[in-house]
Amino acid sequence: MKCPYCGSENVEAVKSWEMPKMGFNVTHYRCKSCSGLFNHYVGRGKEFVLRVGLRRRG
Ligand SMILES: [Zn+2]
User: Fold this and answer.
1) How high is the pLDDT of residue 51?
2) Which residue, of 26, 35, 39, 54, has the greatest Cβ tally within 10 A?
3) 14 vs 56: CA distance, rounded Å
4) Alpha-carbon distance 51 to 45, whole Å?
5) Alpha-carbon distances, residue 50 vs 3, 40, 42 (angstroms)
6) How far is the CA of 11 from the centre of ligand 1 (A)?
């Protein structure tokens, strides 16, 4: 897993949960390099990453 903020792979999974309605499994990650928070969604044959939290760029 790569951090979407800084590209580091030095991330840790904080927690994970299911979204049965959406059919996704979600894992919440924290980047140890930049402290960025993001969620990794997996389900229905696809996966994507969404940035979460108050960190903003630009
Ligand atoms: Zn990062």
Assistant:
1) 94
2) 39
3) 20
4) 20
5) 10, 7, 11
6) 7
Mean pLDDT per block of 10 residues along the chain (58 residues) reads 96 96 95 95 94 69
Q: How far is the CA of 8 from the centre of ligand 1 (A)?
A: 5
Summarize the chain as % helix, strand, coil (round to 5). Answer: 0, 55, 45
11 φ, ψ to 5°?
A: -120, 160
Structure tokens given for 15: 């927690």
Residue 13 CA, ligand 1 centroid: distance in Å: 13
Distance 20 CA to ligand 1 centre (A): 29
